Amino acid sequence: MTATRSQHLIRSHILELRRVEHGSVSAAELAPFGRTPADVLDFSVNINPLGPALTVLHAIQETDWIRYPGDDEAPLRKGLADRNGVTSDQVALGNGSAELLWLIALAILQPRDHVVVVSPTFGEYARAARTVGAEVRELQTLRNLPPGRVLFVCNPNNPTGFVYGQAEIEQVLNEQPDRLVVVDEAYAAFAPERWHSERLLGAHDNLVILRSLTKEHALPGVRLGYLLAGPEVACAVESVRPPWSVNAGALRAGLAALGTEAETHVERARGIVATSRQVLTRGLNQLGYVVRPSAANFVLVEVGDAAKFRSALLPHGFIVRDCMSFGLPSHVRVASRLPDECEALLDMVRRLKDGGHLPAHGTI
Predict the structure, then answer these.
(1) Residue 361, pLDDT score
(2) Starting at the edge strand that comes first in sequence, how are the strands of the sheet with 114-118 ordered?
(3) What are the φ/ψ torsions at residue 340 (nearest 5 degrees)?
(4) CA–CA separation, 55 vs 320, rounded Å?
(5) Mean pLDDT confidence for 319-327
(6) Phi, psi torsion values for 135, nearest 5 degrees
(7) Closest Cα to residue 134, out of 157, 100, 105, 92?
(8) Residue 5 neighbours by CB under 8 Å, 6+ apart
(9) In what helix (H) or strand (E) does residue 224 lie, and over which residues does it extend?
(10) Which domains does the chain have, with CATH numbers?
(11) Ramachandran angles phi, psi of 150, nearest 5°
């Protein structure tokens, strides 16, 4: 059966879906330059610059891989519930927070439901909603929102680093109580003066909070996230999750991440991220680029032609995130790695700029 003849078997709106481009770099892209992912400085991935805590790595190494992973789900849910001051039935686990937002779409949305996404932002919100046939509207503000069944807000936002305060989130929760407000806090662990959104759950059963343990514990390859919500919503999400979608190693890593040593490790990383964010902002500004203020572990920078900027750095072993997929073709996103690595990036940008190898840039 050819692809053309089989199209009638596929839901029509699925044929129109397009994959979302994400960051990082592949081995195939680096091969022409004689490099591998292990010998480049990747500023396109926003994770803990210290890497995983040793206790978390040891937990993964000691995983029993010949057993199904379910035994550790209940203990991890309880641990996360205790940490956040909620009950275990308010916690759902996922194969990264990306899976959880797809499960939200599957559990909550019907075809032709209206969904609002605050953009520019992570493209999987809109893609997940469109997969189930919902109609997506992308807006750049929380003000004067149209009615909708679900609102997706990334806080701090990817890729801008902008953060909404508690009053702003409470306002949208109150505006339309029958609208589910999904607040994705994948990068909140590194935000200065972080406020505790979980404290709103008692008064707002239309709030869902997404968290990513892989960002703060530098485990993007493991895939582990969790959701906090009212018991009914959390149960609905768990009911549509495929069995064993969170693997045994991820569950063991999650339990270890709740330990004192891992928490101390993340706290140390917060200070380093704050320093590196300042280094990047100051250094790129001095080089003539405009850097948006950020509350996340990355900065958004206008460079003129993002694709050319990224391509100029690539042969020298520096990777930044081209933001064209966010609708920002003149911007790159730069993660807060270790301060000396940030200085190395700035030095390379300076050398390439002085040599005329970087594109001209404008202003935001």
Answers:
(1) 66
(2) 91-94, 225-228, 207-212, 180-184, 150-154, 114-118, 135-139
(3) -70, -30
(4) 30
(5) 95
(6) -100, 125
(7) 105
(8) none
(9) none
(10) 9-50+262-354 (3.90.1150.10), 54-259 (3.40.640.10)
(11) -140, 140
Strands 225-228 and 91-94: antiparallel
Burial class (CB in 10 A: 0-12, 13-18, 19+), 317: middle
Residue 6, C-beta contacts closer than 8 angstroms, at least 6 positions apart: none
59-88 residue pLDDT tens? 999 999 999 998 999 999 999 999 999 999
d(CA 298, CA 301): 10
Tokens coding 279:
């280094």
The letter for the amino acid at 50 is L
DSSP letter assigned to residue 134: -
Which neighbouring-strand residues pair with 181? 151, 207
Q: How far apart are CA 153 and CA 320, in angstroms?
A: 24
**CB distance 208 to 181 below 8 Å:** yes
DSSP 8-class letter at 45: S
pLDDT class of 360 with cuts at 50, 70, 90: low
Q: What one-letter code names the amino acid at 117?
A: V
First-last CA distance in the chain: 50
Q: CA-to-CA distance for 129 and 110, rounded, in angstroms?
A: 9
Token pair belonging to 242? 């495929």
